[in-house]
Amino acid sequence: EKLVIKFGKTDKSKLMTYVVASGLQYGRGENVFHSFFKSAWHNEKELAIYGAGQNFIPTIHIQDMSSVLVNIADAKPKTRYMIAVDEGATSQEEIVRAISTNIGTGKVRFAQREDAFTVRDIRQIDFDQFTVNLRMTASFVSESMTIDWQSQTGVVENIKMMVNEYRTVRNLKPLRVCILGPPGVGKSTIIQQLCKHYKIHHLKMTSVIEENIQRLERSSARCDQDDLSEEDDSQAQRDKDFLAELRENKEGNDSGYYDDQYINAFFKETLMSSRCQNQGFILDGYPKKYDHAKELFAPDEDSEEDTVAKYNTLIMPDVVISLEAKDDFLKERVMTFPESLVATDPRYSEEGFLTRLAQFRRLNVEDETVLNFFDELEVHPEHINVEDDNTPSTPKTIAAMKKLIGEPRNYGPTKEELEEIRRREAQEKLQRETAERIERERQERLERENREQREAAWQARLAEVHRQEQEVLEVRTAPLRNYLMQHVMPTLNQGLIEAIKARPDDPIDFLAEYLFQHNPIVG
Predict the structure, then answer these.
(1) DSSP codes joined into one string, 63-114
(2) Which of 67, 174, 194, 326 could pair with 280 in a Cys bridge, judged by C-beta atoms 3.0 to 4.6 Å apart?
(3) pLDDT profile of the chain (523 residues), mean per 10
(4) What is the pTM of this model?
(5) Which residues, in sequence order, are bridge partners of residue 322?
(6) CB count in 10 Å sphere of residue 278
């Protein structure tokens, strides 16, 4: 710092230098506090406070820091050393609690300082910064500069703005999808693959009910504890009463299910949870009725945005997809399900499946259907026929749905996941190359064998042609041969013998004269 100031005093006409002691810079996607934001975003049960957490951390929003630098560049103040911090003298504990409350579960834990180095996203420089204990006051900046403060009161007071910036800059918008369709169409299988691809949460009725019942049981079990605050004790008592009400309702129903109002309440509680609000969700076959949808997505009366939109903007699906197939196709498909599934899940027995299918068709022939509800709110459902993709993995259907839903809006794969992806790709490439080599060798062997067979067949056909030609030739020349043997050859042979005996000077003339004199026809 002294060296910087010294250079600025050497030749003021050419170079002016300033030293700005800045607080930890936050906002616009986060840097120092990113590990806390990321852990909260991924619904870590408790955010860690390292040490006692009472250390004061000087901070300043990155945009406010930019304003300070712009003021220095414009005004060229005489003061060469200045402090740039906001007015929010907050401790590490206050900052971590604010992050956990506004983006995570709301819970924190105190951890040893050494535990920070076991977290992959925390670097040494990050740890040194958020464990610093320093009170700073930006007197010169506050009194001498005109700054349109973005976050003058600090992190805790402006945490909601930070969260919005964090989501926007890192494109971490929740992805909300609803997939509907008749039983047996393959919703759950497809949704499992989509949730894995988009890293969002699969919400089906059985799991939503089970999770909410377990939550109520855990909360109601705390009623008798003495260390609860008055607010926590009241909540535990309300949950205990509600759980008793639920059990009474279930026992009073012949079907053994909860009333629709309770199921809707379970779904709304889950949809408003931090995990669904952060990453997003895919609703699996719910809501089933128009009234379910109307009650579930009813606007929040306290929200101006909901009043304009006429629905709850925090949980309304961005994409609604209806998977469709004819009854005959669905029946044939269910027939192919494993016997173990049919035996353990009565929904896929013949009677259970046909009952559910008939109920679905009955609910979707009236004017007030779930699809109509979304249409009325201009969230227009997309329709996909699955009959052209009758394979267990349904690649065509999933590809079409990914195209409708769009790109992921969440954190990309972790380092371990990337390594696993590379390992799997390398293994698949090796298997593919091995299979291609084996197939290529097989094709070459087959071609060689076929070529040898064709050559052998061609040689056999050629020999047969020669034999047949010889036979034809012999048949055609037999009369001529017989004629020569009978009328020509005896006289000709005798003439040759006489020519050999006489040895004339002109054997041809001798032979001709002999044949003329001894021609049996003339004689």
Answers:
(1) HHHHHHHHHHHHH--S--EEEE--S--EEHHHHHHHHHHHHS-S-EEEE-GG
(2) 174
(3) 76 82 88 86 85 91 93 88 90 92 85 77 79 88 88 91 88 90 90 89 92 87 68 78 87 81 92 87 92 89 72 92 90 78 72 85 82 91 87 85 87 69 87 92 93 93 91 86 85 89 90 85 64
(4) 0.66
(5) 180, 383
(6) 21
